[in-house]
Design brief:
CATH class of the largest domain in chain B: Alpha Beta
Number of helices of chain A: 24
Number of strands of chain B: 12
Distance between the termini of chain B: 57 Å
Number of domains of chain B: 2
Shape of chain A: globular
Number of domains of chain A: 2
Radius of gyration of chain A: 24 Å
Structural class of chain B: alpha/beta
Distance between the termini of chain A: 35 Å
CATH topology of the largest domain in chain B: D-Maltodextrin-Binding Protein, domain 2
Oligomer: heterodimer
Largest sheet of chain A: none
Number of strands of chain A: 0
Shape of chain B: globular
Chain lengths: 546, 339
């Protein structure tokens, strides 16, 4: 099998030698943009403040402690989020017929796009000291030991944000299982356990490292959640130290150096994860519904699935509902009659569109060239590295890239015109990992299945993309673009240095309301933000990913 | 395939952008650019009231550039250096002033301080105070009967209410409490923090998170300002939230403004600083910025501000002390409260 593939590889390699340059161009361009933005931002910071030795920083016991805690909580959070997401995704894959499933799956995109402070207040409304659970228990005469603060709170919040994301990223894995496998399993009468071992696991495992990487990066770079729910300074992540250096110690060089350390750590972890990604995803035949699985009728499995789905839905959506109810009880009319709100909506929309457009271009460029590297040039490691570069942009904090690009704009004398552009660029970098991680596996599979056919038909370039690739990737692209759009709609990471008066976005408005004691108004804005985010997500997901 | 479908949207959006651009450019009047923090310029803050008042007074265009907070303001000024377009910076507090002086970008205000009846003794040649406040612990009177009467009681009485505070590494009130503890307990502050630590529910990134959690009922008491209850009385007509007044006194936060050397219109900048001290502005600060006027006027404070909520004693360090010791004191704080 491998030999056959290898010999096929050689012929294809010869044939595609002259198209090689062109096929590598999109990836090279994307990579150039990526490195220019990230490297340029860091270089700009170091140009105004000379760099310090990284060793000196790492020898600081405070930083050492912070690094250890960051790693520890990120590993725990990732294990928990992805570990729990697996059975939930499986339950959803097995039960693909129940009413409300589509809605449920759509709403899984909601937690990850909620502004952190809103999500924290939602979690608090349910699990906090005066939250729903403690109130009910107290009403029944009991008392709970439930405390949200400490490692429990951090893990709970990270699972809240990342479990639904992981479920959505994992769900497509089940669709790669070929019909023949189910048929064979049925005729052999395989039990549910054996199905997992021989059919499902091999299908899911190629997706797993990528999903783990995304969740790990998100938890690693988590900031306000960790500080607020961690209960105290013992829960400090590198991002907190970066923020502290940048904002209160006025030490941009230290901040940039810490960002580099964070980037290096994340890259090392990513390199470990990449080792586990199988070089070739498993081939898939015609896709079928889950209703042909042999283990559907099992009553225990059924009960288990239903209760798993219900529990997850409750865990995720009660806090969301709490935020929602709080919001619709607020001063709705005064909030929506404020023209600032609608300007902010417009500006956020513009940023979301700009950022997702840019990120989509970058991701497609990287993924298409990576595919060429893997299948035509037989350079799987180089291919994986290219994809990896796209996943790691999350490891340099938005505030560092924002500050760096601010300096660039300043030196170019383009501060007035460039603000929106910079915010778009930073957001594009922050959502690129989602896009690349959902586009790349599908594009690779499409390459594996159709590369030979396309070569025989002489189908390449744009026609091939349109006819062969687009139908395969539009679903994952739709989903990740939707997430990206919603995320950049709700982002305020880069706003700090820019004029928040002239360039108000919806999250900045929310922050300003809270800063002016207007917590009720802020809760209305939060609902508007959530509704618009989820509509944007839904709209992009449905129109692109039909 | 997607591009043709999107292009009408893009052209619409660029049209809108163009409209915004044309709508905001005004005729040829001189522009005075003032860097301030976000909530000062926000629609609930004093900014929108000061702007028309000053514009009528000077015949110029007053433009606020709103940065996230005081630290972000200074951060931006530092990055911009001599290229800054700011004529005035407005809203640093005294823990940032030394850092700001080091930029070499600020010039003396040249205003005769003797003629002004400041509420707190003042003789700084560069920074002019425009309002001030005091850190204080705000409590929910529905769950706290008798609040602690002193910082010592809060620290030492194991039955005093649990609190939410802000992180001194990432917020101004957080740093304020650190300085407050330091001025009451001196070198014993680490032991005091260790005693207080079990009753700290959580430490948040900034004021908004802490106050939001407090309003959600996560703790009966929160680190805020002594003027917070006045907000609830004035805007929400509720007496539920009160501030615990401490015998040792309260740590003071003075907000200041200064002229920028690179400004091409230093006279107008000076005029604006003077305007900030006028009755017009001083009167609207309490109910918009929720801070107390820096200048004594004959006018009484709005009704919502109670005499009983003014501290009997005022605590503060010099800006120089803060600058020299901040890092060391934060280190000590970390060592004392890390659990």
């Amino acid at each position: 099998m491998d030999q056959a593939l290898a010999s096929r590889g050689r012929t294809v390699k010869a044939r595609s030698a002259q198209t090689g340059v062109w096929a590598l161009l999109p990836g090279a361009l994307s990579l150039a943009v990526l490195l220019t933005l990230m490297g340029g931002a860091l270089a700009a910071i170091f140009s105004v403040a000379p760099p310090i030795r990284p060793v000196a920083i790492l020898q600081d016991p405070y930083i050492g402690k912070v690094v250890r805690f960051t790693l520890w909580q990120a590993i725990l959070s990732t294990t928990l989020s992805v570990g729990l997401a697996l059975p939930v995704a499986r339950a959803l894959a097995r039960r693909d017929q129940f009413p409300g499933r589509r809605l449920l799956v759509t709403f899984l995109g909601l937690p990850v796009v909620m502004p952190v402070i809103v999500a924290v207040l939602g979690l608090v409304a349910v699990y906090g000291k005066s939250g729903l659970i403690n109130t009910w228990v107290a009403y029944l005469g009991g008392e709970t030991a439930l405390s949200l603060y400490g490692l429990t709170g951090i893990l709970m919040a990270h699972v809240f944000f990342n479990l639904p994301l992981a479920v959505r990223l994992l769900l497509p894995a089940w669709q790669t299982i070929p019909e023949e496998s189910w048929k064979l399993a049925s005729s052999l009468g395989l039990s549910s356990r054996l199905l997992v071992r021989f059919i499902e696991w091999p299908a899911i495992s190629p997706f797993l490292p990528g999903v783990c990487l995304i969740v790990f990066l998100l938890c690693f770079t988590s900031f306000a959640v960790v500080l607020t729910l961690g209960g105290g300074p013992a829960s400090t992540t590198i991002e907190v130290a970066i923020y502290q250096s940048l904002r209160y110690d006025f030490d941009p060089a230290q901040a940039a150096m810490l960002a580099l350390i964070q980037f290096t750590l994340c890259t090392s972890i990513a390199l470990v994860l990449v080792k586990w990604i199988p070089l070739l995803a498993h081939s898939s035949g015609r896709r079928i519904d889950a209703r042909h699985r042999p283990d559907l009728k099992n009553p225990i499995g059924r009960t288990l699935d239903i209760s798993l789905i219900l529990t997850t839905a409750c865990f995720l959506f009660i806090p969301v509902l709490a935020v929602f109810i709080h919001g619709i009880r607020g001063p709705i009319t005064s909030v929506i009659s404020n023209p600032d709100l609608w300007w902010a909506v417009l500006r956020s929309l513009l940023i979301a569109l700009g950022a997702t457009g840019t990120a989509c271009g970058l991701a497609l460029g990287l993924a298409l060239s990576a595919r060429f590297l893997r299948f035509s040039l037989r350079m799987p490691r180089a291919s994986e590295m290219l994809i990896l570069m796209g996943s790691l942009s999350l490891a340099i904090p938005a505030m560092i890239i924002g500050t760096g690009l601010f300096i660039v704009l300043l030196q170019a004398g383009a501060l007035d015109r460039g603000t929106l552009l910079v915010i778009c660029a930073v957001n594009a970098l922050m959502i690129l990992p989602y896009l690349i991680r959902s586009i790349a596996p599908t594009l690779m599979r499409s390459g594996q299945e159709y590369d030979r056919l396309c070569a025989q038909l002489g189908l390449r370039g744009w026609p091939r993309f349109r006819v062969v690739d687009w139908p395969a990737i539009r679903r994952p692209i739709g989903f990740s673009l939707g997430i990206g759009g919603a995320l950049s709609f709700g982002d305020m990471g880069v706003a700090a240095l820019f004029d928040t008066q002239g360039d108000t976005t919806l999250p900045v408005l929310l922050f300003r309301q809270m800063g002016a004691y207007r917590f009720d108004e802020a809760s209305v804005t939060a609902v508007i933000l959530m509704l618009l985010s989820v509509s944007l997500f839904w709209l992009i997901d449905r129109s692109v990913g039909r | 395939m997607m591009l043709p479908r999107l292009s009408p949207t893009w052209s619409f959006l660029s049209g809108v952008l163009l409209l915004i651009a044309t709508a905001t450019s005004r005729a040829d009047v001189p522009i005075l650019t003032v860097y301030t923090y976000s909530s000062f310029a926000s629609e609930w803050g004093p900014g929108p009231l000061i702007e028309p008042a000053y514009e009528a007074h000077c015949g110029c265009d007053l433009k606020f550039v709103a940065l996230e907070d005081g630290a972000a303001l200074l951060g931006r000024l530092k990055l911009e250096g001599a290229r800054t377009s700011a004529d005035v910076i407005l809203g640093l507090d005294t823990s940032l002033t030394m850092e700001a002086m080091d930029t070499g970008l600020l010039m003396p205000h040249d205003i005769d301080l003797k003629t002004i009846a400041f509420a707190t003794p003042w003789n700084d040649p560069v920074f002019l105070p425009f309002d001030l406040g005091y850190f204080g612990f705000v409590y929910d009177s529905e769950s706290v009967g008798t609040p602690p009467a002193s910082l010592k009681e809060l620290v030492d009485n194991p039955d005093s209410p649990p609190i939410i505070i802000q992180d001194p590494r990432t917020s101004t009130p957080g740093l304020g409490l650190l300085l407050w503890m330091r001025s009451v307990f001196g070198d014993e502050e680490m032991a005091a923090w260790a005693r207080l630590s079990p009753r700290i529910v959580t430490v948040t990134k900034g004021w908004s998170e802490a106050y939001g959690l407090f309003l959600e009922g996560e703790a009966p008491m929160v680190l805020s300002y002594t003027t917070s209850p006045a907000y609830h009385r004035h805007v929400e007509q509720t007496d539920r939230f009160k501030v615990a007044m401490f015998d040792e006194g309260h740590y003071q936060q003075v907000e200041v403004a200064a002229r920028v050397t690179t400004s091409t219109q230093p006279e107008r900048a000076q005029d604006f600083l003077r305007f900030m001290l006028s009755d017009v502005v001083q009167q609207l600060l309490p109910t918009t910025n929720w801070m107390l006027p820096a200048v004594r006027t004959n006018q009484a404070l709005p009704e919502a501000f109670l005499e009983a909520e003014l501290p009997a004693r005022i605590l503060s360090f010099t800006p120089d002390d803060v600058k020299t010791n901040r890092k060391e004191w934060i280190k000590r704080w970390l060592a004392a409260v890390e659990r």
